[in-house]
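Q: My labmate handed me this sequence with no annotations at all. I'd like to see what the chain might look like in three dimensions before we decide whether it's worth expressing. Could you predict it?
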Amino acid sequence: MAVRMRVALATFGADEFAVLHTTCVEAGHVPVAYVCCRSMKPNSSTDAHAAVAIGRIAEALPRGMDLLLPGSGEGLAAALAGYRLDLLVVYGFNWKLPASVLDTPRFGVVNVHMSLLPKYRGPAPVLWAIRNGDTEIGLTIHRMDERFDTGPVLAQRGGIPLDEDVAPQLLWPRIRPVLAELLTTALDMVVRQVLGTPQDDVEAPSAGFIEPEFSVVDWSRPAREVHNQVRMFAFMGRDHAPVAQVGKQRLKVFRTRLAPTEGIRVDCADAPIWIVESASATGGPEPQ
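A: Here is what I predict for the chain of 288 residues:
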């Protein structure tokens, strides 16, 4: 008889919950609770972005499904204990989960990470891939341990393209089918109690939080590095645009090009770059 697992899902958006939920159900398992992270750190106030996302998640919540908004790791462990979980599936949860959470489900916790681990361990793998000029990203599902993104790999695949003007709404349709397929494989491996493949402890690029000073454009750096800096912040959203001094103007830079085009030309360390979309850092849009 097939094992029918009771599963909790922890992620950050309504679309993400939907694909995790559907994949689990189609694989014969039962989602019993959703978990949403409402702050960047445990024991912190709900941040504004999370509050908006939680509202959308609540609107799309399946009938009878509980939505947990924990304030701490210990509170999450206590809440999950009542669900008699077999597995917790995590995708984009901000906190490092304590052992009390990892030990609660019968089969432990699996994590969806947007890189080919061990490359880009950390909370911002897609941002660092864009920053480094990668043309594609990968996806890994691994068993979660008490360190960041170091547990054994259950399934992974690369080859997800990163466009020149990459944006979450364009990237998600490429991620979704890969996520569903790999999660189906990982769920089967969990049921069969396959431990997974240990990760190599080789030196690999990490993906920590972006340093605050990177939000200012330095024209003394190579043009491609500046271009990828702008692309990375564009992926995060217009509110995060880096600031640049251009002559006597202080601009928020939304989009650049490396080839000659209409816009503001600026000389970088090795080549010129063209600002094709910007706004005053203190007022309205700048004329182009």
